Amino acid sequence: MKKTAVITGGTRGIGLAAARKLGSLGCSIVIFASGAQEKYQQTFDVLTGMGIDWIYVRGSLDDSDDRKRLVEEAVKRYGRIDILVNDAGVAPKERRDLLEMSEESFDRVMGINLKGTMFLTQLVAKQMIAQEKIFTLKGHIVNVGSCSAAVSSVNRGEYCISKAGVSMITTLFADRLAPEGIVVNEVRPGVIATDMTAKVKEKYDRMFAGDQFPIARWGRPEEVAEAIAFFCSDAVTYTTGNYLDVDGGFHIRRL
Predict the structure, then answer these.
(1) Rounded Cα–Cα distance for residues 126 and 144 (Å)
(2) Superfamily for 4-246?
(3) Which residue among 159, 204, 238, 243 is the active-site one?
(4) What is residue 200's predicted lDDT score, i.e. its pLDDT?
């Protein structure tokens, strides 16, 4: 029997790379994003061409009804959820100095990145607990955090705060769900070549040209997906509440 993996933000970037990777390993894939399916059809055709069994559920992560419908559609189609990859997230629409951050921007970023992740994980965890254990563990949950959980960017403070919160979500659910046979871990990407970082390409190119990154290049979504797949595998049965930096060594403090 195949495992079923729910992936939020699975239509592009890291989420799409995770969908391809987990699908190639034999998982059935449930992709959740906010756009119309037609917008992503070319992407979905690639998954079909790879022999991956998938469905798409449209909705917004900050909407309670949409989160419930995602879980319902996944269970209706595949009967269970074995993996949750919390990848969906947004950056501020406009980067502003911390002293100029608006409440509207704060609420938008928190609603998706933090609140949405928190309460979708709650729903999926309940589903995992309720279903029959047929694999080594009842479930694997992987949160896609960010180096911004620990690195200050004063022109996008709401994003940093949200990702720091995601790290605590990892800790809390790892603690709560360990007795249930569910492990929860986190991947912290650094500067990855995605739509989100394309808007500030020149800034990061300059950083790579300097000495701030031991591995001085852009990361690829596929490299993050490899770490996600590891945390979703049966190789990880005695590790929970941990995180893995996928950041080219950016986290290393250097003199």
Answers:
(1) 20
(2) NAD(P)-binding Rossmann-like Domain (3.40.50.720)
(3) 159
(4) 81
